[in-house]
């Protein structure tokens, strides 16, 4: 069974921002592997932090000279400045119990089977801002963990694209493509209109 790097949504109002990027991870300091850059196959650099779970994988299995598919959470303050948090590494052969059949060693084909591709992001959240002049939208993503009192349990993502002002406060599901440091809207679906209950 091929494990999907971006899991299926479990409930319709599930917030999330997750994506997959192929690239090499270059740590700022070889003693501290948790911070560095992800360099994609076009040579673009993205500021990156490796989260705890992925850090042990990185130490045990990852050759820093090779490219991998990284499962990442995006953060940004604007469309010029993307920051990634690595949650996992998608390697169906080395890290999953997937039979290593070398004829299928084409990861991009495997991704296509899962309806995914390099630089794809799935973003689900509340549309809180539309800038029609700049053609940008802002999606608010709330953390699912009610238990921990995290100071940044809500965060906003700035995305290049156009949505109608009428959709403000609606819960939307977006298909996003990363272009350099920008996240660009490809497709969207309105899951629930006006979460604020004004209508």
Report what the structure shows.
By secondary structure, the chain is mainly β. It has two domains: 16-116, OB fold (Dihydrolipoamide Acetyltransferase, E2P); 122-192, OB fold (Dihydrolipoamide Acetyltransferase, E2P) (Beta Barrel). The chain contains two helices and ten strands. It has a five-stranded mixed barrel with strand order 1-2-3-5-4. The N and C termini lie far apart (44 Å).
Distinctive features:
199 residues, OB fold (Dihydrolipoamide Acetyltransferase, E2P), five-stranded mixed beta barrel, 10 strands
Can you describe this structure in just a few lines?
A 5-stranded mixed beta barrel has the order 1-2-3-5-4. The protein contains 2 helices and 10 strands; from the N terminus they run βββαββαβββββ. It has helices at residues 52-61, 107-113, and strands spanning 16-29, 32-40, 45-50, 68-78, 81-90, 120-131, 136-142, 154-160, 171-179, 182-192.
Please render the helix and strand layout as text.
Layout: E1 16-29, E2 32-40, E3 45-50, H1 52-61, E4 68-78, E5 81-90, H2 107-113, E6 120-131, E7 136-142, E8 154-160, E9 171-179, E10 182-192
Parallel strand pairs: 3-5
Antiparallel strand pairs: 1-2, 1-4, 1-6, 2-3, 4-5, 6-7, 6-9, 7-8, 9-10
């Amino acid at each position: 069974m091929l494990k999907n790097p971006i899991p299926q949504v479990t409930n319709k109002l599930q917030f999330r921002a997750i994506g997959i990027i192929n690239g090499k991870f270059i740590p700022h300091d070889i003693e501290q592997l948790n911070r560095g850059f992800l360099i994609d196959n076009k040579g673009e650099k993205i500021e990156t932090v490796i989260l705890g779970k992925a850090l042990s994988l990185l130490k045990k299995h990852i050759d820093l000279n090779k490219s991998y598919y990284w499962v990442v959470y995006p953060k940004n303050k604007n469309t010029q400045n993307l920051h990634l948090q690595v949650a996992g590494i998608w390697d169906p052969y080395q890290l999953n119990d997937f039979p290593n059949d070398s004829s299928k060693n084409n990861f991009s084909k495997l991704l296509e089977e899962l309806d995914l591709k390099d630089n794809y992001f799935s973003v689900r959240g509340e549309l809180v801002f539309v800038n029609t002049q700049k053609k940008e939208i802002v999606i608010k993503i709330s953390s699912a963990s009610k238990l921990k009192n995290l100071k940044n349990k809500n965060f906003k993502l700035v995305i290049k694209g156009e949505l109608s002002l009428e959709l403000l406060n609606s819960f939307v599901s977006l298909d996003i493509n990363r272009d350099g440091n920008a996240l660009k809207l490809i497709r969207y679906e309105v899951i629930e209109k006006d979460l604020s209950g004004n209508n």
